[in-house]
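Backbone shape codes
____________________
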Amino acid sequence: MRERQRVLVIEDANRRKEGISSAIRWALYGLSLQPGDQLILLGVLHHLNTPMGYKSRVGSSSIFGGTQRIIEIEPATRKTEYENNLDIIQISNLYQTQGVY
């Protein structure tokens, strides 16, 4: 019996644009996932955008360091973007019909 696969696809969420990313495209076309396998998409934020338009690293000691409010809002915004991305929704639905979660 074949062992279930767990695949973690990591992408730079700061560089994420509309449409399907190369990381997701690779997972869709480059892997042979089977029913029972699991695919997880992880978007990593390297920096946050401040209200003034500056890019700031979390925990940065500069005067433009990320405030707690920005640290809470930016990841939530990106998560919503991923959840509402039509390409990701279609791929997710396709995999779910094939038993991949």
Notes: The first strand starts at residue 6 and ends at 12. The chain has a mean pLDDT of 79. The two ends are 19 Å apart (CA to CA). The first helix runs from residue 22 to 30.
